[in-house]
Design a protein that fits this description.
There is one protein chain. The protein has about 190 residues and is mainly beta. It has a single domain, classed as Beta Barrel (Lipocalin), CATH 2.40.128.110. It has an 8-stranded antiparallel barrel. Strand 2 and strand 3 form a beta hairpin.
Length: about 190
């Protein structure tokens, strides 16, 4: 009986040890946020940011965590250097005055053990708005190349350009923009 009690106590300490938060750093070569919008009804245009960095902290047992991501707005990549310069201007990202875009959250939502959403604040051009990211897929496992634990996810949200003082040409160029944020991160 004493041995059973000792094993039970040891097991409870093991569970507590697994409840510790884990911190992951974004792999910038596989974490390039994208945005898409309707262009005059002709087509849906897709562009991305080539540079993002940040950390994700998650406690899967307590179902808590945080997200802190910074996007280099000057790394916008539309596929056209002329258009890259145009949307970095004052009417849109105004990258001279606001060189970064941030997303910060300390509220992760779970459905059972599955991460389903992240509630946080998106800041563009110095304007912060609450944005909920819907997490469409997640996977955590040992990374076969770097030999460390890694987690990845793809999250989406819809925002309005006009909420961030970027509404020029709306409604011809859609005010609503779909954000897609693919993230791969390595445990520290």
């Amino acid at each position: 009986m004493k041995r059973l009690i000792a094993l039970t106590i040891a097991a409870s300490f093991t569970t507590v040890a697994f409840a510790a938060p884990e911190t992951y750093v974004l792999d910038s070569s596989h974490s390039m946020p994208r945005f898409e919008y309707n262009h005059f009804g002709y087509s849906v245009q897709q562009s991305r940011f080539d540079s993002a960095k940040g950390t994700i902290t998650i406690d899967r047992v307590a179902k808590t965590g945080s997200v802190d991501v910074t996007i280099d707005a000057k790394s916008v990549n539309t596929g056209s250097s002329v258009f890259n310069g145009h949307i970095q201007g004052e009417d849109f990202f105004n990258t001279e005055k606001y060189p970064t875009i941030t997303y910060k959250s300390d509220k992760l939502k779970f459905d059972g053990d599955k991460l389903v959403a992240v509630e946080g604040n998106l800041t563009i051009k110095g304007i912060s708005k609450p944005v909920t990211l819907t997490v469409n897929s997640t996977l955590c496992m040992p990374h076969p190349m770097v030999k460390k634990d890694a987690c990845g996810a793809t999250a989406t949200a819809k925002v309005k350009r006009s909420d961030f003082n970027m509404g020029k040409h709306a409604p011809y160029v859609s005010d609503e923009v779909t954000l897609t944020i693919p993230v791969e991160s390595i445990k520290q």
